[in-house]
Amino acid sequence: VSFIPGGLDCSISFVSHVLGKVCVHGRQKEILGVLVPHLMDLTKSDCIWQRICWRLVECVPDRWMEAVVLGFAQGAPTADVLSRLLGNLVVKNKKAQFVVTQKMLLLQYGHTTAVLQNLLGYLSLDGLRRTLLLRVLQELLETWSSSSAVKHSPAEQQLYISKAIVICLSHLKEPEIESCRQELLTSMMEGVKCHLDSSLPQLRRLGMVVAESISLKINTEEPVLKFEYEEDDETRELKSLLVQTPPFCVVPSLPDDDRSEKAGAALPSVSESKEKPHTAAPLMPDEELDAELDSDDDLTPYDMSEDKELKIKAPVYIRDCIEVLTGSRSEDVDEWEATVKALESLVRKNPAATREVSVELAKILLHLEEKTCIEGFMELRQRAQVAVLTTDPIPVAKYLTSQFYSLNYSLRQRMDILDVLVLAAQELSCPKFHGTTKHSGAQKPCIQRLPGSDSSKDWRRIVDERIKSKTRRFDMGQSHVELASRPNEFNSVAGHFFFPLIQHFDRPLTTFDLLGEDHLVLGRLVHTLAILMYLAVNTVAVTAMGKALLEFVWALRFHTDSYVRQGLLSCISSLLLSVPAERILADMTEELLETQSWLGDVMEKDPDGDCRRLALQNLLLMDNLKKKLEAVPS
Amino acid sequence: MALPPPDPQFVLRGTSAAVHTLHFSCGGPEPDIPLLFSGSENGFIHVWNLKTHRVGAALDGHGRKSVYCVETMGGKDRLLSQGRDQRICLWDLAEGRTSVTDSVFTEHVGFCRCSLLKVAQGRWLMAMAARSLEEVQILELPSKTSVCTLKPEVGAKLGMPMCLKLWQVSDSQPVLLAGYEDGSVVLWNVSMGKALSQLICHQEPVMSLDFDTEKAKGISGSSEKVLSIWSLNEQQNLQVYKTHELVNAGISDITIRPDKKILATAGWDHRIRIFGWKKLKPLAVLDYHTATIHCVSFSDHSNPRERLLAAGSKDQRISVWSIYAQT
Question: How far is the C-alpha of B6 from the C-alpha of B288, rounded, in Å?
């Protein structure tokens, strides 16, 4: 191929056919790896070679066009190389147009960012093709802002589309933005709504970043949309795509760099020289001071050792704390602050006194709002709640679970209840977690961030570790050191934590509908139940809990929200890990078999990657269970 | 071994309300009784007899609204008081009278104490915060004519004036030092009505300031932990001279003793602190009160040994101390 003679009127179509056939058989990399660099050099300045190249790709038959275009898009190093090689193929050839504007952007999502950059850059480099760019942007935005797409498509595809949108935006010029400003704005509003509705923090972040990028582009004078979210690699990468570095300016900028370097070098020296007179100035007053006659010596100071920082004392009795927090005493905010800070330790030191007023204290804490600006108020409040709950579990758990299903609480308060129940259960069941934050990731309440699956991710990690340890168990023995043992305090109260929560989930209230709009809380509830189930290992109620949980999961198994589904699958994992194998076999055989077929279904067809992984884990666990039981001689 | 701080010489009780302002009048010749005027939150001005330690008279002129400034105008017979009823009252107290002779309606709803300066026999200049947020008005008393209004430039964002001090050096023009809500102190030329210099002393509002005209040095306190000492150079520019960090945040009042040797600060941490003025050397911490101290004042006794320091607090007591009186 590299020996095509110049000047001869030869027919390229044969070469095109060969190229097409090779590409369709999957050998794009090999052939284009050789072809593309040659063509790159040849077409750099030579128009004839450019036209030859264009003829080459145009003559590829339609049935192989996709493979060829794909190969070029992947093989070309930058967008303008792609432009030189393909020319206006995308405008002239219907199939190529379909592949570039529809298939590679909307139907496939496995390509790298570089390929996306090449494709979209290619579309933007020629006037004829720019109309296609606008059309592509419109279609991408339509997909991005459709709520069903956000709910049902996998996270990877959504990331891909978001990247494509941001790259398109970066290529748009002012007049084009002007013409489609209104549409951009409408799509942005709709899209942001769908994304923020989602229960997965990753999708919310993607939505926020794309909306910010759109807002940046269309609003030049007014204040720009700005969200608060945690930056991570994904969002940083996405944001960096918005800024395009035009490839043409690479060469001329070198002399600029030298100049800017010199300017940069000049600046530090200027600032240094400025600093010196400043350091000289303060020296003068000091010298003057020493020179003055010290006539203050005749005034002898008194003893000032008692002069310390003023500390407000917190009340020492629990009932005093209650009075301060409800404001029935004086409205002294300093005292209120001191009480909030001291409450947890007071509760832990006086369990008997706390038990007398536990429900009242729990009520006050649930409704406690930040009066002054204390650092870590949320954490202080939560720790106090956990302390109260662990000191007097049964009545307080009864109160909290009943409040979870009551009217007129905010979603935040309901999720707080769930968090407190989990932390207290953790403390009661595992003595080594108490006090010191050994597994600090699992212990931290993570309240300051958006309610996300953060805590459940840590739990998943712990569950995973446990699964790992279990799957190898019949090879390796118990190798870890025995820890100091204490009676399991969770045993007597596990049921009180668990059953009230699971009872009323299908009864909608006026302000709270778990099965309807409030699927975020449902997701959190399901994760909480999974954790409670996991912590109930070795308790008496574990089998009854397992049965109830299995029924609960069965009722909700087709829920549309992937966060809820992930929770349901974690419930199954906890179940399989906590309920003793014999009891599972004896009491839950048919339900387990049904669950197994459901899990197989999820593993193959569920759009969410995490769900599929969890389903696979569960199937493995079930398998191990079976093997273990078969291994034991009955 | 340093001595423990002294106890108050005596404590005046009986105001039944938080004490916001104090002013001594002890300079009179012998048959005159040394007096202490105090203004309280319940609107009363008490005239304390410092020989018997009892209230001589209680003046009610502000409609039970808190009185936050009292000053004498040339002797104990004429008193000026400022209250939260937006009025400044002039009293005639000669021969046992207790009547309001005149009043100025300031329309000021803040807490900025006015400042008096005697310019000639029977003529005074008074600086007070005016109705508009950032302005300071200078009036001539007793004629109540407005001399000028000091307005910061547009966009200066100084906030309310928090404390004022009018002074003049011998026969030159009177100047005003004003501390503002944004933490800056501004020097104004009163006759021309324009600002000569501005210095940002604090990050929080300036609560109180005092100025030593001889050394051209001043000190300001704020709601933060820092005391700021600044000086005025020949070009009438303010410069920060020194700062001093306190143990607890919050200063309500600062006053320098007339002999310019020591100064006292009233703290939100219930303590009075005494410093040497020359180098701001901490000298004593007087811990008697149980609530935030609102004001401190030095007496104007002609005999140095009799000099007193008084502090009024939210705990409704006035403590009177004799400290460093021998120097």
Answer: 10
**H-run or E-run covering A84:** helix A79-86
Residue A436 lies in a domain: no
Cα distances from A290 to residues A245, B77, B208, B261, B308, in angstroms, run: 61, 46, 29, 18, 32
Strands B54-60 and B67-72: unpaired
State whether the Cα torsion A28-A34-A38-A44 is positive or negative: positive
The predicted pLDDT at position A408 comes to 82
Report CB contact under 8 Å: A307, B271: yes
> Closest Cα of chain B to A293: distance in Å?
10
Phi-psi region of A18 (alpha: psi -120 to 50; beta: other; left: phi over 0): alpha
Alpha carbon distance A31, A21 (integer Å): 11
Task: For residue A95, tell me if it sits in a domain.
Answer: yes
pLDDT at A580: 85
ipTM tops 0.90: no
Which residue in this structure is represented by tokens 């934590």?
Answer: A497
CA–CA min distance B234, chain A (Å): 16
Please check the confidence at residue A75 and state whether its pLDDT lies above 50: yes
CA distances from B185 to B69, B174, B213 (A): 20, 17, 16
Assigned token pair, A629: 């039981």
Look up residue A406 and give its two tokens.
């009551």
To test the contact with chain B by mutation, choose from A286, A307, A333 the residue with the greatest count of B C-beta atoms within 10 A, namely A307
Q: Tell me, what's the pLDDT at A478?
A: 44
A605 plus A493 within the same structural domain:
yes
Return the domain boundaries, chain B: 19-105
Q: Does residue B294 contact residue B314 with C-beta atoms inside 8 Å? A: yes
Residue listed under structure tokens 């593993």: A603
Which tokens is A449 given?
Answer: 């961030």
Distance, in angstroms, between B20 CA and closest chain A CA?
A: 21
Q: Do A298 and B327 touch (CB under 8 A)?
A: yes
pLDDT of B22 strictly over 60: yes
Rounded to an integer, what distance in angstroms lies between the CA atom of residue A409 and that of residue A426? Answer: 25
Peptide bond into B8 cis (omega under 30): no
Q: What is the pLDDT of residues A388-438, one digit of tens each?
A: 998 888 899 999 888 888 888 888 888 888 889 988 888 888 765 443 333
Nearest to A403 by CA among A553, A546, A509: A509
What kind and span of H or E run contains A62? helix A62-75
Instruction: Determine contact, residues A560/A520, Cβ cutoff 8 Å.
Output: no
Q: What value does the mean pLDDT take over residues A147-159?
A: 86
Domain B19-105 has CATH 2.30.30.100: no
Residue B123, strand partner residues: B120
DSSP H or E segment with residue B140: strand B136-141
> How far apart are alpha carbons B263 and B257 in whole angstroms?
6
Q: Find tokens 């100035």 and name the residue.
A: A281
Model confidence pLDDT, tens digit, residues A184-222: 888 888 888 888 888 888 888 888 888 888 888 887 666
Measured in residues, chain B has a length of: 327
Q: What's the confidence (pLDDT) of residue A458?
A: 61
* Segments forming the whole domain that contains residue A349: 318-391
Spell out the SS3 assignment of B226-267. EEEEEEECCCCCEEEEEEEECCCCCEEEEEECCCCCEEEEEE
A109 and A133 in a single domain? The answer is no
pLDDT of A2: 45
Residue B45, pLDDT score: 93
CA end-to-end span of chain A, whole Å? 73
Domain boundary among A71, A105, A123: A123
d(CA A12, CA A49): 12
Q: Which residue has the tokens 């105008």?
A: B73
pLDDT of residue A482: 53
Kindly tell me the number of DSSP H helices and DSSP E strands found in chain B. Answer: 0, 28
Interface test with A, best of B279, B322, B323, B326 (most A CBs within 10 A): B279
